[in-house]
Amino acid sequence: MQKVLFRQMFVLVLLLPCLAQASVFEKTLSNGLKVIVKEDHRAPVLVQQIWYRAGSMDENTGTTGVAHVLEHMMFKGTKSVPRGEFSKRIAAAGGRENAFTSYDYTAYFQQLHKDKLEMAMKLESDRMHNLVLSDAEFGKEIQVVMEERRLRTDDQPHALLFEKLMAMAFQEHPYQHPIIGWMNDLKALSAADARTWYQRWYTPNNAVLVVAGDVKASEVFAMAQRYYGGIAARALPLRKKFSESPQLGAKRFIVKAPAELPLLVMAYHAPTLRDPEKDNLPYALEVLAGVLDGNQSARLNKNLVREQQLASRTGAGYDSTARGPGLFILEGTPSEGVSVAELEAALREQIAMIARDGISAQELTRVKAQVTANEVYKLDSVFYQAMQIGQMESIGLSHMDIPRMLLKIRAVTAQQVQDAARDVLRDDHLIVGVLDPQPLDGKAKRSSEGDRHAH
Amino acid sequence: MHIKVYVLLAAALLLPPGSIAHAGPIIQQWQSPSGAQVYFVENHDLPMLDVSVNFYAGNGFDTTDKPGLASMTYAMLTHGSEGMSEDDIARRLADVGAQLGGSFDADRSSIAIRTLSSNAERNEALVVMSRLLQRPLFPEAILAREKTRLIAGLKEAETKPESIASKAFNKAVFGAHPYGLPATGEIIHVEKLQGSDLYAFYSAHYSAKSAVVALMGDITRAEAEDIAQNLTAQLPPGGAGTEIAQVVKQSSFSTLRIPHPATQSHILMGAPGVARGDADYIPLYVGNYILGGGGFVSRLMQEVREKRGMAYSVYSYFIPMQQPGAFQIGLQTKKEQADEALQIVQATLNDFIEKGVTEKELLAAKQNIINGFPLRIDNNKKILDYLGAIGFYHLPLTYLDDFPDKVDKVTVAEIRAAFKRKVDPALLATVMVGAPEEKKPEEKNKAEKTEGAAK
To answer: Which DSSP letter does residue A178 get?
Structure first.
């Protein structure tokens, strides 16, 4: 359940805001809980999502991973709902449920028939303030989380490289720590740490409730008042303002792990959206990522994979929406016979070309065509629309910024994209990581294979 | 659960839908003058259209001398057609915001497109799709490049525990049957593929008379008829059969332990399971929900994760194919406790087969499957996928409507009998990648079981 560790920094898609927020309604309860309803009557279903403005970036040294561990523990029962009962009741109602933790927030959701909202609200509101965090359950669940870490990070060379990339890129900002936590911290975490976390952050004035689907906003507000309205607000700790000082020169690192192919990652420090109306650069960077990797005819794939054949795969990604600072990431796997250094040079040349010559009007139009079409396609997913609303609200922006961002991205000019490539993708702001593949048997690398024949 | 969700999504088409209170969409069906069977749901809620064209051209149709041919033929369809280079295809689709998609498995190859339904965009997207389906060129230079990329990917897969396990499992379960071979073939097979092979496979398997066209969205019946005809009228004459070779059930127990440096062991166990249309399928599906398909409430999840904290993901499923597809149980756990975890899974399965399910468990399973029916058909993409499956496997048009009733009628006795017939624990193949050194049970170090537990 429990886990999606939503690694939003690496989602290689453009953030595509919505056409019309016409059917979105919002209301804030007296205890500070913000309730947002998106009506969509296409199918007799709904989704309830509760978003807490607490993610791994709010953790402290030594207890990394506690946000995510608590997310797991939220399924372990309350004073009135025994362990396992939450999932059983949702399942019996035909529902699907899960939760996810990111650097910036933690969220829980259920997808259900439209008649089942009340049951889900009763359960979700209950665990907002009545969670039972026993030492025994914690002792088992922390083992599950360690298995999750082994599965998704320790035994995954690419994930390891990205974990180290974040640790290299951010020396001051808490994004340096992995969402799932360092293994040593997980081993030392206790139920008391989870209790502290729960008491600090799980309060209605730190949450946003999003309900989308075949519902009436007025009924949802009334129901939310009934189930969440009685939960007392608590004072939240002062949030520290984290930032990352400018990087004073390029950084390089290597990760050795069992694998066959190398992987090159190049990350540039980049700003994220702070003022959706006044900012321009984040939008230009979104379009730049689209020009490089937003569709099958985008530059990296066309030039480096298909034509020059220097890489077997490439990627570019940037996410303008986050509580903290951003990264603009390029990555690629060199073709056989091509060195990592040659691929790095080729990727740099792709950036230099844009900084020097700009992009064509056709490329700009093409990226915007994706944006426009995706605005329609996203309407096919009620869940995704709710996600977008919850994410915006959780990072300090508003769901009402979504249409504004769409207008802004449509207004990006070719000159702005060129300027962004020149100003942001600079060597001094660069972190280069390389996965250096090692043989599975742990013996000498292939280059020294001759040594093995000696035995 | 996250991992498991992905597994289920991958098999979503293969899972049956169901509900009592809710009818499925109204499906229109006809035969196009080209000979293709057409399945259409008209819906004007969103200004978009989804189309898929499905062929009996999965890797189950590979011959023993050219494994990987079906897969490469499918992959190369988008890399060049008469009058349209691969870049033309990519660019023209991107310019109108269309998304090319599809799927490929042992039975079926499917090419899908999602487009805005406005005339200019839709027409352009369908012109491109029509051309790439009916006038592919399989250019030698691009084939050479794609072979190189595929081989690099296959070498990489040889180092990943999950890929090694999956490949070894399929071979152990299906032997030399095409279901047991990697969909892409082995490296030595890929190296030999030539454009003429691809063209011959295409000509034999991509015929109108065996094509199934599915359409979902914002068009009229008359438009749907034109589109289906235009997408299939110029397909090659075909001539190849649509039947997959018979799967022969193995007659012995096998265990394969493969060393790997990963921290976890990846364990898969199973056997050929059930074919589409088999009367046992519905009882098996409902029963498997209880065994390992029902997320947090399943027995495997309870025994391995909830009670013992031994794995993040543990699941079981049947993949109903034209021939009996795999019944599979899977989990990953730290190497030191892999044998113990395997014993728990075996004991859980043995108990399940021997004693069957309880009335209470059956009721909960039915509640979930039946009440959850609306979530299976709550967007265009899901309905398109059902249309393709219904057409491809010759399921009745009432398949969606009937399913809940069938689920509701399943009895405890039927589940027990179906599992007894289809799953013999004494004849399962087990694959363990990253296996610990074998040791006798009494030598187990108890300290391992508690290592890392919260203090």
So the answer is: -
